[in-house]
Amino acid sequence: MSEITTPSVDPQKQPEDAARHRRPGRRGAERQRARSPGSRYAKLANTLARTEILPPEALEDIHQASLTVLEEVGMDIILPEARERMKTAGADVTPGEQRVRFDRGLILEMIASAPSSFTMFARNPARNVEIGGNNLVFAQVASAPFVTDRDGGRRVGNREDFRKLVKLAQHYDVIHTTGGYPVEPVDIHASVRHLDCLSDLVKFTDKVFHCYSLGKQRNLDALEIARIGRGISVEQMEREPSLFTVINSSSPLRLDGPMLQGIIEMSSRNQVVIMTPFTLAGAMAPVTIAGALVQQNAEALCGIAFTQMVRKGAPVMYGGFTSNVDMKTGAPAFGTPEYMKAVIAGGQLARKYGVPYRTSNTNAANTLDAQAAYESMMSLWALTQGGGNFVLHAAGWTEGGLTASFEKFILDVDMLQMVAEFLSPLDVSADALALEAVRDVGPGGHYFGTAHTLARYENAFYSPILSDWRNFETWTEAGRPTTYDHANRVFKQALTAYEQPPLDPAIEEELDSFVARRKAEGGVPTDF
Amino acid sequence: MSEITTPSVDPQKQPEDAARHRRPGRRGAERQRARSPGSRYAKLANTLARTEILPPEALEDIHQASLTVLEEVGMDIILPEARERMKTAGADVTPGEQRVRFDRGLILEMIASAPSSFTMFARNPARNVEIGGNNLVFAQVASAPFVTDRDGGRRVGNREDFRKLVKLAQHYDVIHTTGGYPVEPVDIHASVRHLDCLSDLVKFTDKVFHCYSLGKQRNLDALEIARIGRGISVEQMEREPSLFTVINSSSPLRLDGPMLQGIIEMSSRNQVVIMTPFTLAGAMAPVTIAGALVQQNAEALCGIAFTQMVRKGAPVMYGGFTSNVDMKTGAPAFGTPEYMKAVIAGGQLARKYGVPYRTSNTNAANTLDAQAAYESMMSLWALTQGGGNFVLHAAGWTEGGLTASFEKFILDVDMLQMVAEFLSPLDVSADALALEAVRDVGPGGHYFGTAHTLARYENAFYSPILSDWRNFETWTEAGRPTTYDHANRVFKQALTAYEQPPLDPAIEEELDSFVARRKAEGGVPTDF
């Protein structure tokens, strides 16, 4: 089911050590947990048949209804330059008015030129990621205002925690890209925050990163930092998408100026736009999931079409983020049955348009309890079966996105790795069918210690990071640790084991020099 | 996707109360949590396309390999009467030897007469369950030696806890049947335990129940108690399966005497047999999942074929219970990626044979932490996508089946209800598409309080039992409760809200009289 190939092997363990290893002390287990997971999860593919919950006629109904919305209601486009470009492309623009309406033919013509797959290039080519098709790419949590770990409690985001979370994203191969600022470091002045953060992302990871579209200059700085980080020319970067931005519509039916500017700056340079309406059913979208999907689709199609008006063939993803609110409190809910339906239906829509599909690993839990796990696992279920290609907030997102959690990061890494293992092919070779082993053991025997078992047991099964499978008595003697306890220990071990990826000194100097110059210039205006 | 029809409505809430209800106190929420969920989950259907991880040729390879095992290696059949019946049917039986071999043609001929679907009849006809096809039926935890709740801790099973768990199974409609003794009440003497327990199952629930196949007399007593409970004749009961038994092979490749006797007693009377090999890869089955599936399939086909040798057309299910062990400790693991693969592949095998598929909701957690939730949710993911028809241990199973947990029972009920909601059809009517509402609100507005929202918000979304969606500050003021805390409170509320189902006094008298007579006779021998 996947391109997973080389299982990581611990050379210290040999089959003949089996008996000795049957009850390892905690130190052995911890050593294993702290080690880098190798390349097993660096590239993932999901070849499962996609689950579909919309019959073809329902899919068509949502499609047509969203086109009707764009044609008859239209969107508010809060940037004159964007309205000009839309008018040039054939949209219905009235001078002096923000409302823009789009003929359905225009929308369909525009989205047809969006590529169905593309590569995002990292400064380390081994970290390049393929977007679209059967590829499954995980990005860490982004944009949380708060950060938490059990020792320090919940606190406002800061650069130290920002860096730690970025290091964790680098440490685990199942995290394929960062995804924005994992936590907002408010101890850096907003005028220069993007310079420091993007510089950190280049230095502490060698993976693809994201830039916020919060004004043209931030986009331009990010583009330059990404170019410097890869050590390439402007022309090469224009051929090789190396930076991505998430564009959220201001639902319902509005695209704000900085977001539109972000599309213009990024798409015109062939960089990646992830067009994601945030359509909470019952709040900023109709209370019905079908209605929220109509609105999501209208907003997504409008944004995707605009990327193609800016530059035909520019790489873009269809982002789905429809969930429901708690109708008793108005609070957003995530990882719910309704969220699952929206994720799977969103995948059907994205495939209909041949555009890669961005999803998320969500939950609304306030702590690392069962709720955090079941809401996340329901999200992973839906995005796996629904054919998500790129998963933002894949690790560390909690409390509905308000908080980045160190412990949740580890829990998510474990769950993502389990999804990857589930998607890996089931070996059904003659050897795996084990007819000879069955003959040898026969009725009434057992398979512990047989040749067939000894030759395979080391890598036969996924060895989870957190699951505590000790028997109740042993677990009680150990102080009855929960998943939360294990995750708390493991994230610190991972930070200790973190290795900074090498960076050409010339590139580092150029980067530092650029950041220093831009800081000296005052960064960006912050009169917001 | 489901036959879910009537949403439960709380008549105390009206749309105009919306504002007042936006921040309910805990008492309101608790009242809602404690109430019986009505009939919304009484009948479930899963119309999702099944996920397949075995390509057709791999499915055929496993099928053929398992037939080769039965033909060349055979099974040890530890009951002379069973070997006689097998010999009569055409199996290769050598007088004085336990080993029996089966021609593949014989196996295929026998399983062809197993029905693809059937009804199990409860004493309350509204609780009848349809087995097979798209039907999804949940049974509670069974056979745990220990029981736990947070107040009382982990303790050996007893009748008081047995009764409480049975009451919880009755209370929630998403639990469609009981599934054996939820916990083994060791304070009842083994010679009469089945009489007291089965009598309790008739009195405290009106749902279908299970009997253990631990010797012929226990089966006969259970058959009589099921007949009395329904108030029907022996003949009617023979037309209407009203009792089920789980038959486990003693893997590898052995069927013990009491299990074989159970098949004979149950199948000959047209009652339901769930044939479930317990094939732990790396322990009692080959270390490869494909090899374990070969062995599972061989054992399942042997047992299913035997039911049809006893009585053509007798109702039987294909049980899948292949998981892996922790190769470091030998401990069984559940809800793992390997378990998911085995569950989905097992569904492909069961469908190949046209026999309803029994699965389980498993985990190996020692407490109600994130692990308990993610392992269970991975089990539910696999059995839903894999087409499980009947789910044993659906609620309350923890610690690899060693312990029945009151809190886990509630967590599972919530997760089962979320699966049911996920499987319910997505309304894509013109009304749900909400084009008029989108027109009315337009760009930049919101949907709180619109007519479209007010008309639907009460039942628009699933209202979870346990998920705590309060914001961090409110949740902190409330003492930062976890899922475990909520589940602890809810199970007690459910027990308080439990209502004993009515039972015809004549039936109760007949039941009591039968139990008293059988006790006076000494119950069953316990010289084991």
UniProtKB/TrEMBL annotation, chains A, B:
It holds the Pfam family MTTB. It comes from the Bacteria. Residues 1-11 have a biased composition (Polar residues). Keywords: Methyltransferase, Transferase. Residues 1-40 are annotated as: Disordered. GO terms for biological process: methylation. Its EC number is 2.1.1.-. GO terms for molecular function: methyltransferase activity. The keyword Secreted does not apply. InterPro entries: MttB-like_sf, MTTB_MeTrfase. It is an enzyme of class 2 (transferase). Belongs to the trimethylamine methyltransferase family. This is Methyltransferase. It comes from Neorhizobium petrolearium. The lineage of its organism: Bacteria, Pseudomonadati, Pseudomonadota, Alphaproteobacteria, Hyphomicrobiales.
